[in-house]
Automatic annotation (TrEMBL):
Protein name as it appears in the record: MBL fold metallo-hydrolase
Keyword Metal-binding: yes
SMART domains named in the record: Lactamase_B
One Pfam entry name: Lactamase_B
Family, as annotated: Belongs to the metallo-beta-lactamase superfamily.
Key words of the record: Hydrolase, Metal-binding, Zinc
Xref: InterPro entries: MBL_superfamily_lactonases, Metallo-B-lactamas, RibonucZ/Hydroxyglut_hydro
Length: 289
């Protein structure tokens, strides 16, 4: 009898944007409380997940993205590392399956410094996972997380110590920006609210483009039809909701292909207006490159 598999196939998926190769790389998932979902009745939120055949409490995908352009390799976000749930921290194994050694990555771009995006920068001993990479992020993001005395009212106060610990091994190879091209064919798009320096990244080559929008949504089954719904992790919930509305309007009007850190793997989709709201259309698995 043929043995049954005891593990899923590696979670990687390649997508060309013109001459740029973008690879979705899963870091796994996190299970979390429904209590972090704001501005919606808890019963309504649970009902929306059940109607979409999703787990209650919520299950959140963690996606990172490799960008290979101009002979260089960037990693967009680093996942949860070894510091969160056992269901996360799969980035390194999936990078290996993609044939990418950590030492070949020359740039790590961060959407923001919440632990499920930046805790994969360093191991439990504080050593950099990416020994040859510069670390790049929006200057407002770095300033926010490196402040010595975070306001007592700030959600996620423990995250400040995590951010400083994770960034420390890259102190001598840190690059801060406020927009513009940050990697060949890749431009930063400031999308504040979730955090002050939260960024998306627009990849453009030829007549093709992709907006990797970071954490514009955390729970797509809820926040796409109800974009006013926010999360306790939002540093400025009102601004986060306003940014989400602006981004939704833009990508729907222009037909922009999008990718997200918390969209279901491989995380690439289109967003369209429908019946006075929005609907997400996940892109079909690409069989060829």
């Amino acid at each position: 009898m043929t043995p049954l598999p005891d593990a899923q196939v590696p979670a990687i998926h390649h997508r060309r944007i013109g001459d740029v190769l973008v690879t979705s790389v899963s870091d796994g998932f996190l299970d979390g409380s429904m209590a972090v979902i704001q501005n919606i009745d808890p019963g309504d939120a649970a009902a929306m997940l059940r109607a979409a055949f999703r787990p209650v409490p919520r299950r959140t995908a963690l996606n990172c993205f490799l960008i290979r352009s101009g002979g260089r390799t960037a990693l967009l976000d680093t996942g949860a590392g070894v510091h969160m749930q056992a269901s996360a921290g799969r980035l390194m194994a999936n990078l290996a399956a993609a044939g990418v050694a950590p030492g070949t990555i020359d740039t790590v771009l961060l959407t923001h410094m919440h632990p499920d995006h930046s805790n994969g920068l360093a191991d439990a001993h504080g050593a950099a996972f990416f020994p040859n990479a510069e670390l790049a992020m929006h200057q407002a993001e770095h300033a926010y997380w490196m402040q010595e005395n975070p306001p007592a009212s700030t959600q996620g106060v423990p995250y400040f110590a995590m951010a400083r610990t994770q960034a420390a091994p890259y102190a001598d190879r840190l690059r801060l920006f406020d927009g513009g091209e940050v990697f060949p064919g890749v431009s930063a798009v400031h999308l504040p609210g979730h955090t002050p320096g939260h960024c998306g990244y627009r990849i453009a080559s030829g007549d093709e483009s992709l907006l990797i929008w970071g954490d514009i949504v955390h729970v797509p089954e809820i926040q796409v039809p109800r974009p006013e719904v926010t999360m306790t992790f939002d540093v400025d919930p009102a601004q986060a909701a306003a940014t989400r509305a602006r981004v939704f309007d833009m990508v729907a009007a222009d037909g922009v292909l999008i990718a997200g850190m918390h969209l279901h793997f491989p995380g690439v989709a289109n967003l369209a207006r429908e019946a006075g709201g929005f609907r997400l259309y996940p892109e079909a698995w690409r069989q060829t490159l």
